[in-house]
């Protein structure tokens, strides 16, 4: 048990600064707070505002498909201050 814990801690220390993969989900570190991205302070994020958040997939985060992200949608796309990205194998190529 102690060896397993030590191995986990060592792995986190070695790889803790990059993108972490947990199962099928990829997590990018240090996502900005909603209020930092809501440039016009209207309580929602436009596609342009959301584009400021590296790695955030607007289409996945916009659960109600209304063309804006609410604070709830933005926060739901995050875990512990990190952005949940779609699984790598399901991503479409970007242009």
From TrEMBL:
<dbReference type="InterPro" id="IPR018247">
    <property type="entry name" value="EF_Hand_1_Ca_BS"/>
</dbReference>
<feature type="domain" description="EF-hand">
    <location>
        <begin position="58"/>
        <end position="84"/>
    </location>
</feature>
<dbReference type="InterPro" id="IPR011992">
    <property type="entry name" value="EF-hand-dom_pair"/>
</dbReference>
<protein>
    <recommendedName>
        <fullName>EF-hand domain-containing protein</fullName>
    </recommendedName>
</protein>
<dbReference type="Pfam" id="PF13202">
    <property type="entry name" value="EF-hand_5"/>
</dbReference>
<dbReference type="InterPro" id="IPR002048">
    <property type="entry name" value="EF_hand_dom"/>
</dbReference>
<dbReference type="GO" id="GO:0005509">
    <property type="term" value="F:calcium ion binding"/>
</dbReference>
